[in-house]
Design brief:
32% of the residues lie in helices and 27% in strands. It has 263 residues and is α+β, with helices and mostly antiparallel strands. It has two domains: 5-103, no CATH class; 113-262, Jelly Rolls (Sandwich), CATH 2.60.120.
């Protein structure tokens, strides 16, 4: 005997609640790992759309099947019978849940560029030296990989002083205790040999960790990115200072700081 119509919404509500509850309990290692890696490596909207379609098909079929079976249950159906009907749902919905999580909006983080454009000093300041971010149309490309989080510093030729440098300064308040970031040469960079420093409140050098070593200066690697972690305890301002060798009349220096996070 089919359930009268006045009970259909009761069963449908119970089924949907069970779907939501079981989806939240899906172990990430069962399905999420492969899908997360797949979604992150997607290079186009078409690829991502295919991934969603592949996940939606089984999920839709399983939900429709469960709905039909729930409607057909007798009014005397037990909790065990309902659970038996909906038991295939977690496995069917799991890949879709993992894909949604892996491709959803990233949590908001504080970065230097999110604090606004820095003040620029050295080598004629902002009149000569450039600053850009992906949000303002810049392209941050290191070793063929374009990054969407970070900023670019540009030091044009000629460089002719005994100790040439330029520094970019942000007012950060006193609530942050550290900065983590990666530093490297942009694809458009023409010369190497630049050194990066981090300066605090009164222009003092801040020690930082890079490749497991505590230092106050880092020569930017010719290839790839160098990771840095800077202690900002009690610092209300932070400067990123770039030093470059003297007498380089034709060098155009493009340095990218990517994946930077204040915490």
């Amino acid at each position: 005997m089919a359930i009268p119509s006045k009970f259909s919404w009761l069963h449908r509500g119970r089924a949907l609640w069970l779907v939501g509850a079981t989806a939240l309990l899906i172990p990430g290692l069962l399905w999420g790992g492969d899908l997360l890696a797949s979604a992150q490596s997607s290079t186009s909207g078409a690829t991502l759309a295919q991934q969603y379609l592949a996940a939606l098909g089984p999920a839709g079929t399983a939900i429709s099947t469960a709905e039909a079976k729930l409607k057909a249950l007798p009014i005397t159906a037990s909790v065990g019978q309902v659970q038996s009907v909906v038991s295939p749902l977690p496995k069917a919905v799991g890949p879709l849940e993992a894909l949604i999580k892996s491709t959803g909006p990233s949590p908001t983080v504080t970065s230097l560029q999110s604090l606004g454009k820095p003040s620029i000093l050295g080598q004629d300041g902002a009149n000569r030296n450039g600053y850009t971010t992906p949000a303002s149309g810049g392209h941050l490309v290191v070793d063929g990989i374009e990054y969407q989080d970070g900023f670019q510093m540009f030091v044009p030729p000629p460089c002719t002083g005994a100790e040439n440098h330029v520094q970019y300064t942000w007012q950060i308040g006193t609530k942050y205790t550290s900065l983590t970031a990666q530093v490297g040469y942009d694809l458009t960079n023409s010369c190497t040999g630049m050194v990066v420093r981090f300066l605090g409140n009164d222009g003092e050098r801040l020690p930082f960790t890079s490749n497991g070593r505590i230092t106050e200066t880092l020569t930017i690697p010719a290839k790839g990115l160098a990771s840095v972690s800077v202690d900002l305890t009690k610092q209300a301002q932070l400067s990123v200072q770039i030093l470059f060798p003297p007498v380089r009349p034709s060098c155009a220096d493009y340095i990218d700081v990517v994946n930077d996070q204040l915490s």
